Amino acid sequence: MSVAAVKSGHQATTNTGTAAIPVAVPSSGGPATGDWMIAVIHTTATNAETHAVTAPSGSGWVQVLAPSLLSSRILIVFAKRRASDDPASWSFTQAKTGTALVEVLWGTGGLNDVTAWPTGAFSKGANLTTQTTPGVYGATAGSLAISIQAEATSAPESDVMTVDSPFVKWFWSLVGGNNPVNSLLIATQTMSADGSTGDAVSRGWPNSTGNRGSFMLVIPPAPDATPAPVAKLDAKMSDGAGNVIPVKLTAIDESGKDIALAKLDLVHSGSFVPDLDRMSRVWWMAHRGGSGEYQEHSARGYVQSAIAHADVLEFSVGRTSDGVFFGLHDATLNRTTSGLAANYLASEHTWAEISALVQDISNRSGTAPYLKLDDFITQWSPSHSLMFDPKLLSSASRADLLTRLQQIPDYRNRVLGKFYATGTAVADEFHAIGCKAWGYSYTADVENGTAAATAEKWDYLGLEYTASEATWATMLQIAGSKKVLGHICPSAAAAQQAVARGARALQVSGVNSVATVY
């Protein structure tokens, strides 16, 4: 279990009567990427019972404590995970004006997802006259108890509250113009055993005349960040004469290495190209090995996609300066690996350089090395149809790629091509070696006639799942008897929307979600 721990705290700047509340963290020594952050806002806004504070759009801040009245004051709490591209400050907006005291504290461990803060994490006591905070009840060992106390009074504080070791505390008083003093105290304690009870603060405010509110936030330990290893059981394959190819058992860890087994999941065989044409059910392919949930083109992503019953596994092909094909959608590695020099082109770096890097796209499961095309083919061509997107490859590199694909046993029944519908040269190249190809389009292509003009070149067509019903109806007329794939579906709901509008196959980034319905 990953135990939560507070790393530091910082008093943010305060507003002075305007509607904007700046919430800042230190430019150096502040929260690192992946740290959780909690912003506690104590405001003197008038008509506090109807007050609201709004986080900046797209910032990732989630309100985990609704505005709670403390006499003529409001206490509101937001939380988020620190992202690599987060700014040093955010501007929150008050519905009503008032002086606000803001405290941001941050830490590591605990909950993996602040957007899924557990119901009941807060224990509340408003307008308290007692000297203690709400207790901690039924906590899991290793939980972090955070006591948040706010006071509304115009009287100055006579001293700083004392809390017992091993608690950590922050305490400030602030006077904003003629407004009363706003005070915050935040103390933390790591609970030592299951079911622990107690207070994170040993005694209350030295001033006994003010209105006080107390809240206890409990952050439970999070599961270990490293996923359990996944065992892959190769599918049983017929040799065409009723015999079954022997089964072998391997295990793959997060980095794609073979390890001793700790868990067993059955990986189902996919569907070969002839099956795709005659099956009546909806079939789907895993976009870059489940790109919405796993690092792109990762060994783990493809295993999980197979466990989720993907019919086809898709692979976008990049190439290094020394000619090695590997999984990459973009011309550069900057989106998939953080911290690289700007414009880090795959074509300017060797496989030795690239294989030493890891993919660390945020909000994906773990990290993963880049995957060679040869390793992908060796692992999956015996059991699944494989769709290859040559993306940004030159015509010469595409020719080399097609030469390599023809080395796959029975490749015509296992290999598919993919490209944007206008790239009809790619369709011709795959057809020339006896393979089928998918050309995907967007609403604009349907409206300007491009989809209709290129449709005859492709064996399967595609349209984004969010396209309107009218656009889908037009694409289905263009397709005739050809199947149209809905792309790129991040969830079961998205997949169902595409199918409802006429898709008979899907390109899927959210493989685990879509697997619940198809």
Give helix % range.
Answer: 10-25%
Using the CA coordinates, give the radius of gyration: 28 Å
User: Any idea what the CATH superfamily of the largest domain is called?
Assistant: Phosphatidylinositol (PI) phosphodiesterase
Give me the secondary-structure category: alpha/beta
Profile the largest sheet.
8 strands, parallel, barrel
Low-confidence stretches: 118-133, 156-181, 201-209, 228-247, 260-266
- Per CATH, the architecture of the largest domain is Alpha-Beta Barrel
- Quote the CATH topology of the largest domain: TIM Barrel
The shape is elongated
Instruction: Just give the CATH class of the largest domain.
Output: Alpha Beta
Termini distance? 33 Å
| Strands ordered across the widest β-sheet | 18-19-23-24-25-26-27-28
Overall mean pLDDT:
77
**How much of the sequence is in beta strands?**
25-35%
Give the total of domains. 2
User: Helical stretch count?
Assistant: 11
Could you tell me the number of beta strands? 28
Describe this protein's structure.
- The chain is an alpha/beta fold and 518 residues long.
- The protein has two domains: 5-219, no CATH class; 268-514, Alpha-Beta Barrel (TIM Barrel), CATH 3.20.20.190.
- The chain has helices at 273-278, 299-307, 351-355, 373-380, 395-405, 424-432, 443-447, 450-454, 469-479, 492-500, 511-514, and strands at residues 5-11, 15-16, 20-24, 36-43, 53-54, 62-70, 73-81, 89-94, 99-108, 122-128, 144-153, 168-174, 181-190, 211-219, 230-233, 249-252, 265-266, 283-286, 312-319, 325-327, 358-359, 368-369, 385-389, 415-420, 436-440, 460-464, 484-489, 505-508.
- The strands form six sheets. The chain has an eight-stranded parallel β-barrel with strand order 18-19-23-24-25-26-27-28, surrounded by five helices. Strands 1, 2, 4, 6, 7 and 9 form a six-stranded antiparallel beta sheet that branches. The chain has a five-stranded antiparallel beta sheet with strand order 10-14-11-13-12, with no helix packed on it.
- The longest helix has 11 residues, at 395-405.
- Mean pLDDT is 77; it is low at 118-133, 156-181, 201-209, 228-247 and 260-266.
